[in-house]
Amino acid sequence: GLLALMLFLVPCFMINAEEGTEPDTGEGEEVIEVATINGLQGYPSIEAAFAAATNGDRVTIIVPVTLEADLTIPEGITLATTSNTLTISADRTLTVNGILSSSSMGRIINSGTIVIENGGVFNADSEINMQSGSALSLKGTSVVNIGGNFNLAINTKIISDAVDGPVVNIRTTGAILGNANALDTANRVIFNNYGGRMGDEFVNKVNEGYYNAYYLYHAESNKYYKTFDELTGPIEVELIAPYNFNGDVEIPEFVVVKTTENNGIKINGTLEVNGTIDMSSGDTILIAYNLYGNGYVILNKATELAQGYLTNVVIYKDVATTLTFDAVTGYTPAINDI
């Protein structure tokens, strides 16, 4: 009876195994999670996460990822690096119809092509390395926001087939570094510089009328301004980039402008101060050929104040300050301790 029972069970087991229903031993192969949706459910690939994501979801890579095949970020979806590296291999394309976000300790290494199109957005708030031979292609109303170092190696290209529309915003913490010849001069890409760093050689490649440098920031309204002439007051603004100007400049009496560290005012002309320049927040330099008006200059933290002719301006200072005046005028400014 026992032998008959064994002969019956063995064929049954063999049939179940062939059908893929062999018993679970509890030792299944571990699935490596590559990305999460909104920091919750994990997925074995970015593509799998995209397939499960819905409008407004954030897909974050949780391990370093190298794209060996073309990939498209769908509209309404964000792909984020956060603390890992996303590498785009040579001859591969990452197309952004949604949002590509690189922030915190994450970074992107591009040896292929990144295409921003159809209203796509690239938030580059960490290190971006454009390797030699790589390209950034901007189409339609695409937007690139640079808040970290955007490094352009030799032979990199920023290209666009749009007549107007693509916008690159360089934030205060952002910088475009490296290859000054990356930009094709036939492009119509608008560059807005909000106190970031762009080399003069790169800026010179931007088409005339397509570069906007913003020097002044009003925190209360979160607005940026190019010149003092645009201001209506009373208003207090922050100088977010070195204010270099050839010609005459007037600071109206209703304006208080606060300089920030290393961001001073350099005027090759006449600076008329009827408002207030507060230079107490950093080591800044105020240089003007002719400085006059009925306003105030507040100096602090070893600020250097240098100018040619000086008239009528009252100076308030705290710590040691270098003051250089033109002796010909015979004018000695009122210098008061803060």
Poorly predicted sequence stretches spanning 5 or more consecutive residues: 2-26
The radius of gyration is 30 Å
Q: Would you tell me the structural class of the helices and strands?
A: mainly beta
C-alpha termini separation: 108 Å
Count of helices? 3
**Strand residues, percent:** 35-45%
Helix content: under 10%
Describe the sheet with the most strands. Answer: 10 strands, mixed
Q: What would you call the quaternary organization?
A: single chain
Spatial sequence of strands, sheet with the most strands: 2-1-3-6-9-12-15-18-20-22
- In total, the number of strands is 36
Mass-distribution shape:
elongated
- Average predicted confidence as pLDDT: 84
Helix-strand layout with pairing:
Elements: H1 2-18, E1 35-37, E2 42-43, H2 46-52, E3 58-61, E4 65-67, E5 71-73, E6 78-80, E7 85-88, E8 93-96, E9 99-102, E10 107-110, E11 113-116, E12 121-124, E13 127-130, E14 135-138, E15 143-146, E16 149-152, E17 157-160, E18 167-170, E19 175-178, E20 190-193, E21 197-198, H3 200-203, E22 211-213, E23 216-218, E24 223-225, E25 235-239, E26 243-246, E27 249-251, E28 255-258, E29 265-273, E30 276-279, E31 285-292, E32 296-299, E33 304-311, E34 314-317, E35 322-324, E36 335-337
Parallel strand pairs: 3-6, 4-7, 5-8, 6-9, 7-10, 8-11, 9-12, 10-13, 11-14, 12-15, 13-16, 14-17, 15-18, 16-19, 18-20, 19-21, 20-22, 25-28, 26-29, 27-29, 28-30, 29-31, 30-32, 31-33, 32-34, 33-35, 34-36
Antiparallel strand pairs: 1-2, 1-3, 23-24, 23-25
